[in-house]
Design the sequence.
């Protein structure tokens, strides 16, 4: 069988952080791939070839079968060929995982580790912290309203709110939050010269890996002290659940504890802030939509679900095939790499009517921004709840809202979203 090879401009774009800042252009490429080559091989100089999955159905099929499509055999985060070699050389057992969290685990470890915190993230437990989250939302809203009718919503509001929530849940003191925000942005926005640690274009894999190593080392230093503290003085926070967790009857190993803190501390804020900012952008662009929600009585569930689909903050995760198999009409070989292109799945015409229209009334809204199957986002209920509470606290306070400048997206092929959203607003 002839191997379907994606046109070079698509293969290059889907790994290029800058392409994710040019969202509309990128979506045209994804639309072409869905229509013409939904499972296409992406070949380019820096990355070993991989299958790009652009259709909703194929992303679901792979996400549901974690035995056949591994998150652990090779990194579930896309690394360049050279970067992967270097990561292998410097990681324990040469496994290539710069940090080891749920995202880099398969059975049986994955479920053992996931179960440590899973009940914490379920709606029943989240209800017990709803009042605390509402306090953070109110405080966030007051600060925004005090800005005098104009702000950069992405930078001044959305970037901080989910961070405060996660830090509060983890039990990290407020004075350490700026450090956590900086480290997360450096981790996810490593390619964006406005955000990364070097404040410069990254030109080599060596530089990229080195920068990530420094960021991870900073996280490790910080969290080692947290582990020691919570083991000595357990508290009612998520850090205590992780620090005192046991795996196979023994305390959670240091590497995995650090991976756990890092994933909880980082996965939950840039992502949730991207969807929150995306929702506000659509309300600012569309006065009729804003009018529908501004009195605070309309249920925001549809708005939030659509904002998550619309923004799809996680741009991709990788899997590695553990056996030969057929997928979507193609023959996949053991060891092949597959990229789950979530933004494309969430614009799939076969699943969503009019996918390029923001429509809070979609029922059902089968968006896959949180992934699917065994690795489905652990924080999905928290993310929705945070967004709902912020909308409940913010929208009734506003008389009007509009864009006050051009929004801009971050250059990142991993977690994307708005880095600038200038808005003008009137307060009730
Ligand atoms: C809009 C917000 C969010 C989006 C779009 C999002 C997206 C995702 C996606 C796509 C995955 C699947 C990874 C895979 O299949 O390999 C994932 C996993 C995960 N997310 Fe989220 N996430 C969001 C918010 C959060 C929040 C608030 C937290 C909580 C702290 C969180 C924690 C996690 C964790 C721990 C995993 C790993 C789960 C596992 O591998 O078992 N996320 N997320």
Sequence:
């Amino acid at each position: 069988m002839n191997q379907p090879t994606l046109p070079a401009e698509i293969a290059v774009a889907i790994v290029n952080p800058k392409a994710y800042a040019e969202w509309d252009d990128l979506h045209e490429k994804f639309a072409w791939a869905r229509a013409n080559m939904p499972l296409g091989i992406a070949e380019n100089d820096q990355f070993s070839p991989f299958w790009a999955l652009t259709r909703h159905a194929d992303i679901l099929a792979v996400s549901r079968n974690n035995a056949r499509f591994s998150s652990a055999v090779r990194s579930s985060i896309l690394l360049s060929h050279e970067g992967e070699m270097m990561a292998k050389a410097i990681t324990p057992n040469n496994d290539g995982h710069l940090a080891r969290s749920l995202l880099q685990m398969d059975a049986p470890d994955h479920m053992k580790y996931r179960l440590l915190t899973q009940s914490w993230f379920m709606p029943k437990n989240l209800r017990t912290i709803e009042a605390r989250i509402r306090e953070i939302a109110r405080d966030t809203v007051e600060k925004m309203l005090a800005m005098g009718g104009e702000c950069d919503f992405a930078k001044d509001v959305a970037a901080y709110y989910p961070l405060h929530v996660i830090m509060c849940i983890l039990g990290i003191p407020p004075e350490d939050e700026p450090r956590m925000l900086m480290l997360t942005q450096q981790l996810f926005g490593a390619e964006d010269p406005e955000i990364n640690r070097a404040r410069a274009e990254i030109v080599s894999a060596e530089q990229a890996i080195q920068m990530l190593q420094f960021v991870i080392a900073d996280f490790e230093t910080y969290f080692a002290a947290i582990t020691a503290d919570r083991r000595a003085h357990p508290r009612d926070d998520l850090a205590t659940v992780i620090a005192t967790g046991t795996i196979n009857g023994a305390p959670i190993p240091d590497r995995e504890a650090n991976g756990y803190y890092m994933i909880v501390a980082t996965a939950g804020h840039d992502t949730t802030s991207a969807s929150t900012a995306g929702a506000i952008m659509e309300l600012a662009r569309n006065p009729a939509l804003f009018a529908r929600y501004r009195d605070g009585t309309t249920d925001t569930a549809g708005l939030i679900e659509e904002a998550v689909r619309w923004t799809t903050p996680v741009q991709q995760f990788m899997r590695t095939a553990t056996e030969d198999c057929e997928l979507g009409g193609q023959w996949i070989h053991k060891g092949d790499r597959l990229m789950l292109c979530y933004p494309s799945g969430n614009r799939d015409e076969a699943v969503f009517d009019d996918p390029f229209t923001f429509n809070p009334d979609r029922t059902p809204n089968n968006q896959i921004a949180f992934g699917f199957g065994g690795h489905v986002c652990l924080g999905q209920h928290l993310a929705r709840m945070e967004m709902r509470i912020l909308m409940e606290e913010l929208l009734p306070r506003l008389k009007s809202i509009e864009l006050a400048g051009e929004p801009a997206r971050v250059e990142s092929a991993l977690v994307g979203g708005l880095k600038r959203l200038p808005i003008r607003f009137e307060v009730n």
Notes: The chain has a mean pLDDT of 93. The pocket of protoporphyrin IX containing FE is lined by residues 63, 71, 76, 102-103, 114, 166, 263-264, 267-268, 271-272, 275, 308, 313-314, 317, 342, 369-371, 375, 377-379, 382-383 (CB under 6 Å). Residues 410 and 419 are 5 Å apart (CA to CA). The chain is about 45% helix and 15% strand.
